[in-house]
Amino acid sequence: MIQNFFSTVSTFFAGDTVMSLYWGLAVGGSLFFILNLIFASIGGPDDSADGAEDVVDADIADFHFLSLRAVLAFISIFGWSGVLWGDHGFWGFLAAFVFGLIAMSLTAWVIWGMMHLQQSGNVKTEDIVGKTGTVYMKIPGGSVYGKVTVSVGGSTREITAIAADEIPQGTLVRVVEAVNETLYRVEKI
Question: What pLDDT score was predicted for residue 53?
């Protein structure tokens, strides 16, 4: 019975059925992979499971081995490898499977690496404290706020600020405290 099973498996791997399967996976997987890349580049439907979060400090937990692009890479390379080596029976299948896994792993690794290239545009409150800036909109003093422009991380940010005394527009100030996430205390320089 076991010998009959292996004989059936060998016949399947050596026959036209498996070659049709390889061709179908190769062409279909390649078309879907190309369509996915086109949609991603023009902003169309995309796979949100590729780890495209708004996170700067991503780690190994963000590695998505089974993303759509990685699976499509496996299907495509498995199919094309099967077309090339399918006439070698089980060993051709095994080679196609291994090359498919390699393609899937490389694709997942490239996506993971690209996710580490992105940066968040958010500025932390502690990054603003201690910076100098210019009063953009007069600060009346007390609890009434005005606006200050501050250079943080190579870009200019407008922050809401209060001061003990009135500070006119155009005055240089230093941010001394974060009152809350959106309000800062400043003083004249």
Answer: 43
